[in-house]
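# nightly structure sweep
# worker-07 picked up a monomer target from the shared queue
# config: single-sequence mode, recycle default, output format = structure tokens
# input follows
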Amino acid sequence: YTTVKLHDINLNHIDFKVSKNIIDEKLVKSISRFGVLNPPLLLKQKKIYIIICGHNRLITAANCNYKEITAECVESITVERFLTIIKKKMYNNELGPVGKIRAGSILHDYFNIKLPELIKIMKQVLNITVDNVKKYSEQIEHLPSETKNFFDYKNIQFALLKQYLNLPETIIMACNKYFIEERLTVNMLRQVTGLMLDILQMEKTNHEIIESIIHSNAFDGFVKECSALRYPEYERLMKVALGHIDFFKKKRIDVT
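# output follows
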């Protein structure tokens, strides 16, 4: 192990970052009191170090005003070592669907793992089945950070992530406000994703209508308006039924 000054580490280099972006109170308290107990793994490149493993720990150390840390520094990294890191993170539940796809992308782009072997590794090690890592990796990299964090925090199944990525990019960007402002659940996300995909299948130009609904509504209003758009006959019948109920109430007839 080597003592490394924090200003010699490129903290903004996230090409190898796959863990959930979680810096909780427990981590902050531990590092502020004891330092970085679990040395990060750094790859030396000329006069700078890039992070292979330990992004959250190093960011926390920097925020706690540490000037140097103890780290394991290597000149190169093998695919076997990287897979060992991934397996440990899987065991510790540190990888969400976004991190798993990023891990697959690293295996393909950096370690040059060919597609048949990559699909096998992702199924056996990362527990996801994906036939086009590059496609999903590119789509995920364009997601807003709040959206990516939500998918990872909630450990959302990759099948739902794939559905969400089928939405037009303009809608995905507009929906990001709900990940910031609302306390969304997985079921809420599943519901609105299905609604939006159904609406788009009904008429492709509906994406402009959906965007307009998003921009002018909080989440509850968005769901209500999308439901009316998706099920217009149900909405019509509900209005008729409510009209009848109101009519009877005015005549002081109890309707239950």
